[in-house]
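Final report, section 2: Outcomes. Of the targets proposed, DUF4197 domain-containing protein is the one most frequently requested by collaborating groups, and we therefore present its record in full.
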Amino acid sequence: MKKPLVLLLSILFFSSCAELQQVVNQLPQGGGISNTEIASGLRQALNFGIDKQVTKLTQTDGFYRNELVKILLPEELQKVDKALRDIGLSKLADEGLKVLNSAAEDAVKEATPIFVDAVKGITFSDAKTILLGDNSAATHYLKAKTETALYAKFNPVIKNSFNKVGADQIWNNLISKYNAIPFTTNVNPDLTDYVTGEALKGVFTMIAVEEKEIRTKFSSRSTALLKKVFALQD
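The predicted structure is given below as tokens.
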């Protein structure tokens, strides 16, 4: 199986988009695996990633205590965070960051139904292309299918969370003044938009973690179907 895949990947690399799709559609079946099983295996892998990794983000401090996805201040303002800590106000700085991360945790609870619909829609053609892709090909597929809908769901939840503590208005006033300082790089004054974007990044980061595990570690293929399907890309 490895030699045909090496040849196929070489062809894919040098082909146009139309030719790429044609070659992918001609991918030979092996090991007695059906088209339906390939699509089902990809759906199962994504569902596992959603259930295992995204659910972690909805828990208390699910973002804040996860260094892969923890939401920080924009890079241009991290010196503000550092300044607070340098003068002994680390607790205040931590509370500010917790507000951002807690809002993201609330928002991610809205994600699962959108993901479920997207996973159901994976076709055999999609599955073959994903299977021969890189270690985050399935995650990229899911992102393309869900990002707009997720933003629309996350944004009002995060905004409501901030409104409860007045964080949005405080941020807007602070950043507007900061942006008025000469020679500074402008920062997005919309706290809700900023955290919504960071929450989306976090969600797809964690799905990618699970996908890579299943693709690269045999022990992470916890069902017979996953073992059978992902053996095709080994």
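Confidence is low (pLDDT under 50) at residues 1-30.
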